[in-house]
Every structure is written in C-alpha cells, then in structure tokens.
Design goal:
mainly beta, Immunoglobulin-like, five-stranded antiparallel β-sheet, 11% helix, 37% strand
Length: 156
C-alpha cells in the first residue's frame, strides 16, 4: 500500500494540533466585575506549541443562568501565554459561576469548580502558578485580577 507524503504530513499536523489542545486551560475568571465591567475568562497555554483557539467556547454557568463567550477568529495562544474572552454587557447573575471550556468541535477541554464573588471588585479566581491543573481546589486562589498577565496570589 502506498501513502501520499502530503497526506502523511497533514495527518501528522492534525495529530499535533489535537494533542496540543489538551494544554490550554481556564486560568483566571472574573465572575462579578466592578459596576460597568464585563465578566471575563483568561485561557493559558501551558504547553510548548502554539494553539489556535479560534471558535473555542467558554460557558459560565450560575444556576440556571448561562453566558457564552466565543473566542474570535485568529485567536492564537503562544506557549506560556494568555488569551482573554469577554462576556457581554447586561449579563445579570448572582456573582458566582462555574466555567467550562470547549474546543471548536464542541469537546470539553477544561472546567472549573464553582466560584463565588459577591463584592463587585477587581478580585478574581486564578490558578497558581499559571496553568496548574491537578484537578484539586488548591490549584485556585483569590487574587487581584491579572488579566493577560501571570497570576500572583496574595499580591495587589
């Protein structure tokens, strides 16, 4: 049986892209911003390969309320870098939430535990250090928002 070298290259790239998807995690979330602010969720690429997250969806759920954020076309996250997705004006929920991350095909990539923030301030929940993913609550800490920058628990 003969294989087309071009097809093998495409399949190899597809395999790399699929494997790379598992290294993007929800890294920080603002579920109750100060008045006039938008909810946001920061993604982090903890791997060594660039990942295209165009069309990936972040869903914040708070009881029966749900807000979806779709990453815009051309959103690329370089290794050890961040991308931020923003909610919409007028979202109205209790200031709590659990976030889910889905890739462009709809497969769940990551999720957070439920987080509560009732103070309408710049405090957020984030992984520390960035990208830490042991599936334990201790991966997360309350911190001053550091949107698009490394998380620093206990720093302002």
């Amino acid at each position: 049986m003969k294989f087309c070298p071009g097809l093998i290259s495409v399949l190899a790239l597809l395999a790399l892209a699929t494997g790379a998807a598992g290294i993007v995690v929800i890294n920080e979330m603002e579920v109750n911003p100060p008045d006039g602010g938008l909810e946001w969720v920061e993604l982090y690429n903890s791997g060594n390969d660039t990942v295209d997250v165009s069309g990936w969806r972040i869903s914040i759920e708070d009881g029966s309320w749900r807000g979806d954020i779709t990453m815009p076309p051309g959103t690329i996250i370089a290794p050890k870098e961040f991308a931020v997705g923003f909610g919409q004006r007028g979202w109205n929920h209790s200031g709590s939430g659990k976030a889910f991350l889905f890739d462009a095909s709809g497969q769940k990539v990551d999720e957070t535990g439920s987080r509560s923030d009732y103070f309408d301030n710049d405090m957020t929940y984030g992984r520390y250090p960035d990208g830490r993913d042991t599936d334990k609550d201790g991966d997360w800490g309350l911190m001053m928002g550091s949107q698009g920058r490394p998380n620093q628990v206990g720093k302002s």
